[in-house]
Amino acid sequence: MSALEWYAHKSLGDGIFWIQERFYESGNRANIWLVRGSEQDVVIDTGLGLRSLPEYLYSSGLLQDCGAKEDAAPRPLLAVATHVHFDHSGGLYQFDQVAVHHAEAEALARGDNFETVTWLSDSEVVRAPSPGWRARQFRVQAVQPTLILQDGDVINLGDRQLTVMHMPGHSRGSICLHDKDRKILFSGDVVYDGSLIDWLPYSRISDYVGTCERLIELVDRGLVEKVLPGHFNTFGAERLFRLASNYISKAGICHKVSTFALRSLASLALRVTNSRTSP
Fold first, then answer.
1. Topology adopted by domain 3-276
2. Where is the Metallo-beta-lactamase domain (predicted)?
């Protein structure tokens, strides 16, 4: 299957494109965002990487400028991982320039499929990307990041800047990217319009509460009007406030006890799954 078949996209305007993997039918299917700038383009998360995302970006014309000469050199392209979970980081190996938060840089560099929580089944991939492909063969490949991110760093695209916000809780290296001028938040799995997951390896409820408090502050200060999340549909400031507030209100003792049990089961399952050797 070609990259042009595997992916699909739609424009949200203002140089932002929403890309998805058409034949990965799962609640884990991540949103891939392309943000175009005057001096640099950024891909936020890369999906599973079962087909070439860079090939799709070029072949579909997403990296071409209207009126530009056909032989004009493309702008630099940076792939940023909001975190290293498999559904977001699987395609990072396809890019020359890769950025990730320092808390997860080592896991990515060694291809740690326990920390990437790799968990993929044949039933979720409804059309095989290549003949004979099987989910048990899938692993997040080791990638040496070219850019290590810290809270407060700014990724300069020329006519727009994305500020890195370290927002742990879902994972220890989760980040949001904040376009302050346009009041847009690329939130990864920090927050999306669904049940927030805090029971995976390296999830931490106390960190998540602090992260949600930062999200509420962004809304209170009028700094976010639109959220482009790692899963499901986009939403606005009012929904962001409600999602963050609801998490904080439910993060009590009972939640912590049940989450501990879930995390233990998830960790055991992931260790067993990722200790298997592919044929």
1. Metallo-beta-lactamase; Chain A (3.60.15)
2. 29-231
